[in-house]
Protein 1
Amino acid sequence: MDSKYDKLKKIFDQCEWTEKYFEILPENRDEVRYEWLEEDADYARPFFTTGILKEKTSAVKRSLYLGQDENGAWKLCVREVTCDDFDPREVARGLVRMMDVSKVVEANKNKGLH
């Protein structure tokens, strides 16, 4: 194995994601959410070993890439795209409903709290 990417390759290989691409990087750089060089591998590892970064959430789909940039540096990249069925307006409406102060005040009155 090329020592220029040993640590990144280990992270890549141990990652259980299904969308993984080796020896290429994402075409659309605007979709890259995270990227690490070999010297950053110790910072990258917790994102994949602790479950901080999931392959899919209700809002986004992620894929993992390990490849060389235009200067020959190996990079581990996470590409992130919004799910087709994600509606940020609906999420915003839900948050507004949750944060409606009048409902909190009413609930406190019903409980005898002022």
Protein 2
Amino acid sequence: MSVTEFFSVSPVYRPRMKIATWNLERALPQSVQAERQRQWFSRIDADIWILTETHLGITPGETHASVASSRPDRPSEEDERWVQIWARAGELVPLATTDEARTAAALLTLASGQQWVVYGTVLPWLGSSWQSHPAAQGQAFAAALSTQQTDWQRLRTTYPEAILTVAGDFNQDLNALHYYGSRRNKQALRQALDSVGLVCCTAGENDPVHQLINGQHSNIDHICISSEVATYFHQSFAWPHRLDDLRGLSDHFGVGVDLPEADFCDRDVAAKADRYV
């Protein structure tokens, strides 16, 4: 089912989709930390997971299919990965990305025929170089973002009827008040997302971390979805529910978005996708 068909058919059938991303802080499969993380996998019960700083031995469900990035570009355990995408149902096919170490992408085809292109990422953090680019003045972030933006545009063009989702650890807040990253990187990220018709569903008034802990922190792990679908997302959420509960679990909150079963129908929405292909 194409995006056009998805928004043109009767509103009676609307598949719910829950998408979540979480940085697992390099937990090892047999650790107490990983066991606590698995408990949250069960509670959140997402349809699509984008895990970062993860391990091939940590799975959100025994029946899930996955696509992962290649070996990390840093010293690591053999099965550590920067990014791994998991899907509960449907056919998951790996797609090529330019930065094979810090990104992964997959084409998910559901039983209904609806397709999603899922792109997982870890962008450089403050003080992090990337390939030959130094961290100074956000050069590494800008270079990595530019490379990934090219991937996003290519995937938009190659799969124009699929719903594009980019998610993972962006190492940059997208709120009005500064929290982490830089204002320069924030502006560059906003422009890159807008250029391919992506809307960040976990920023601004929808930042679940900011809401959860009364503005003490902002979210730097994001889920961005094609604008023609993001308009109808139901809610964003984060876990655990208290800052203190992160101890021994992860150094990042997990975040997710819910697309409702309720009526998405808007016959004008399908046309919006055409602007980016």
Protein 3
Amino acid sequence: MSGPRLVYVTARSTSTTASGEGPSSDVVRRFSELDSTADLTRLLHRAYADHAAAGRMFFAAYQSEQDTAYRLSTGECWVAFQDDELVGTVTVAAPYRAPQGYPAPAGAGSFCQLAVDPERRGTGLGQRLLMLAESRIAALGSDQVVIDTSAQAMDLVAWYRRRGYVAIGTWRWDVTNYESVVLAKDLSVC
């Protein structure tokens, strides 16, 4: 992988806020029992609101706090803070326990709920969270990543493709209103 690497336990970086207000201090770390599931759920709702407004009902756009807690239990949840404000997250699992029929390579890892507060978009935080997810999946023993997203979210699909993901199939979740494109990336060639 090119670019800066995040440290697994804690990562600090200095970046400029999306509004250009100058440097801010970012910390990326594992979600802990002291963190708020309610705050994380609100972040997810904010981050996925534009998809919902476009008619794409990503589960993260409306999931309950209980749903968030369950999804946290399925892997490692990482959270990003800017000056003590929760601004990003990603949850990583490796190996991924895909439902029967899901087109995932055997032994692949996955991540979900990659979210950045709308006020922090364009600052590179999403890229850093993606790099962290891929690094953790590799560290957990998987050399491939599989994810899915709305096939209608063409800008998001293009964002992943620019980062080495290729379409390998489609899937239909019962908690969304769209067909998902399933994307994979081979981490062994990064």
Protein 4
Amino acid sequence: MHSSDCPRRHSVGRGRTRLCALLASALLACRNPISPGSEHLEAIELHLRDPAGARVAGTVDNARWTGAPLRVPSGDTLVLLAEFTDVFGAAFTLVGRREHTLRGEIEAPRMATWTTTDGRGRLVGLLAGTTRVRFHIWHGTHADFSSPWLEVVVTPRATFTSAVQ
């Protein structure tokens, strides 16, 4: 090896290192590469509210739920609004957003269903028993946010019994 080759070899090595660092930082900057102009929603918490605005359930550190389980009689519907909290502590919903939708994933779809309409959802009890649901902020082909599983208890539909015999 000639001493005149050393600077050239070191500069090639530094160039490769810089290129690798640049590629790594680009890949790590966003777990889900998306097209320019499209934004991710950075939620850290989720609170489910009833139509009157009362809190029904909420996540703690997006690791567990308070207010759980959700209870819905078979054949009935529980209407919920998903309210998220961002990294700055500000609340937001998905109402009126076009690029982001609320998805509910039911563990046992024969027991309950979830349908979403403009940031709100309807949990319908089908068959008495217990299942779980988790919620996602859906953005194109991936989730920007996923909640932990939340227990759902579908209770048997109450039957009317006349007091007069």
